[in-house]
What we know:
alpha/beta; Rossmann fold; three-stranded parallel sheet; single chain; 2 domains; 11 strands
Amino acid sequence: MAKILDGKVAASIVKNNLKNDVNELKEKGINPKLAVIMVGDDSSSKIYVKNKSIACNDLGIEYEEYLLNEETTMEELLNLIDKLNNDNTVHGILLQSPIPKKLDINEAFRKISPNKDVDGFNPLNVGKLVLGQDTFVSCTPLGILKILELNNIELEGKNAVIIGRSNIVGKPMIQCLLNKNATVTVCHSKTQNLNEITKKADVLVVAIGKANFITKDMVKDDAVIIDVGINRNIETKKICGDVDFENVSKVASYITPVPGGIGPMTIAMLMNNVVKAAKQSK
């Protein structure tokens, strides 16, 4: 039976360390601050934004929220980002996705200062990640690395398979694993013979948004399973991941639960990036 990689426990360890960092910064007259921009009325985004505000409050990080309506123009959004870029009291800027389709999210990400890009989506920071340089890394892949590190799971020389190639998880995850000297394979909707590839994975990262997609027969014995998916089971109405947890956990060595796995780590690493930005602002 697999050992559970508990994201809540790992996140609390990260946050306890960050509390000390925040206190030290405040003693030096630096008050870490995160500004979050949300455009539109997406119900899931509201929950995510609320969780970020709670995490900031817990750590003593100042928090500002900018809730813009659906009619917001690109010019208005870019002007707000520009204003926050030039505000020395703001250390981190986060644009909550999704935003209305008429707006260009990539243009907005380019506008966010690389020094305040705590989500790691500015092309300059993405490039630095590819080159193995110190930078802000997208929070979910960074959280995955951290939970593996805290559980002493070695990546060097391991076969790591990522299912999903999103800009938020899959693509930055490739670089994170390569930088740890894993051998990385990426699978997606066009991949053929998926089962053959997943069966060879020492570490399997799944981020596709399909409930219980990964089944027991797709996983080799003692594999490490990282489930990034958040779905609602049509029958039970309960939140579940992309992995059939009940059955896959019988053959895996480690597995993240959903909820309570990578979700808490993502927010913890956002806090980590805000503190990092504040330290670099000196």
